Amino acid sequence: MLTTTQKKTAESLVNIFETGRVLGDYGQVTLIAGDTGHLTFGRSQTTLGSGNLNELLQRYCANAGARFGSRIAPYLSRFAARDLKLDKEAKLHNLLRASADDNVMRDTQDTFFDEAYWQPAARTAKRLNITSPLGVAVVYDSFVHGSWRSMRNRTIQQVGDNTSCNEHKWITTYIAIRRAWLANSSRADLRATVYRMDAFQRLIDQDYWGLPLPLVVRGQEISTDSLSATPRGCYDGPQPGTRSLVLQSPLQRGLDVRLLQLGLSDRGIDIKADGIFGQTSLRLVKEYQYTHNLPVTGVADLALIARLVE
């Protein structure tokens, strides 16, 4: 059994691979050309095409405390039908981004990804007598990224199962086989992910089978502090109406900015709800003010915030 810290460290490796962040990006919306998963969302990047994104959102909307549940619910039947037109719906994408500020969404994602990916991977690793934190992380990565079974079978064909050779040799061989498969894929999006296997190989080369902390993987620090931090890009405040929003240095960030941007998006304005009040937010606030016969200041004062934020 892995310790809680070892499990979190193994998960953080895949979070870094998927979103570039130790704790993952709970609000990340991704579309990669050629990706059969289509619209992809959340901490461990679950997809429309697999049906797992539908399952995640069904769970979220079923929670009475879900802040954005009533606004996401009208899309659920389309997620269930795997409607690929959802790939292009900017308003929905902003709604998903905003939902990451809700603790209910983050808890739902944690539970869902644990059940959908971590637990099956951990059970599989146990059946193969893979016990090292790094070895389990490699199995987990393939459950998230895909094609575990075919890569496992190729490895068994080459070196036998884990009873025929020691775990370190088996995992090292698996990584080499999977890297070659990724590098030679006909899909450009898969070829671009060989870094995952390179990162695992570097950990092996340093004999970090126990995933000792601190570690630096792809420029990201994995430590007790980073594992216990608030996920980057998630905002618990300030609440809308507690300040005016204006372009300044440093840039204003927060829940109120995100909800203002979401309000503009709901009104058909092409804006990304990233929670950062930058030049684009300034310009689009000015455009909204102009088209609604308001003083064109670029400042989202309390009256404008009340008008735009539901």
What does this structure look like?
This protein has 310 residues and is mainly α. It folds into two domains: 4-227; 252-308, PGBD-like superfamily/PGBD (Muramoyl-pentapeptide Carboxypeptidase, domain 1). Helices cover 53% and strands 5% of the residues. It contains 15 helices and seven strands. The strands form three sheets. The chain has a three-stranded antiparallel beta sheet. Strands 4-5 form a two-stranded antiparallel ribbon. It has a two-stranded antiparallel sheet with strand order 6-7. Helix 6 (103-127) packs across helix 7 (133-145). The longest helix is centred in the middle third of the chain and has 25 residues, at 103-127. The protein is elongated. The model has no long low-confidence stretch (mean pLDDT 95).
How many domain units?
2
Report the helical percentage: 40-55%
What Rg is obtained from the alpha carbons, in whole angstroms?
A: 22 Å
Largest sheet: 3 strands, antiparallel
N-to-C series of helices and strands:
HEEEHHHHHHHHHHEEHEHEHH
Strand order of the largest sheet: 1-2-3
Catalogue the unreliable spans: none
Number of contiguous helices: 15
Strand % is 5-15%
Q: What separation lies between the terminal Cα atoms?
A: 46 Å
Label the overall shape.
Answer: elongated
What's the gist of this structure?
It is built from 15 helices and seven strands.
Structure keywords:
310 residues; mainly alpha; Muramoyl-pentapeptide Carboxypeptidase, domain 1; 2 domains; three-stranded antiparallel β-sheet; two-stranded antiparallel sheet; elongated
